[in-house]
Amino acid sequence: xxxxxxxxxxxxxxxxxxxxxxxxxxxxxxxxxxxxxxxxxxxxxxxxxxxxxxxxxxxxxxxxxxxxxxxxxxxxxxxxxxxxxxxxxxxxxxxxxxxxxxxxxxxxxxxxxxxxxxxxxxxxxxxx
Length: 128
Description:
47% of the residues lie in helices and 0% in strands. The chain is built from five helices and no strands. 1% of the residues are buried.
């Protein structure tokens, strides 16, 4: 950030890849060697059922960050997602000993709700 080109400029600094949340979660699961079970529940259903999450977890707008200006002006380079994700996941698994994420105390309720929702959707599908 000592470049003369950076004076009075604004830059987007982000990873180069654009990844859907489901793919991000699948990649994390891959590095943890677990087989997750995903249940897609509309945000409105979660909210009306009392599951209220802070941003960015409820951020449902799609946007893309363009890092070209930072790459050109500053020589900015990103670490490929596969590399940083593997390192981050293993660090959290092997070394992190801080508090759980905000809201994690509700995890069992989330699992139970997801199971009930999936059963209800399956029952509706069976009737059609």
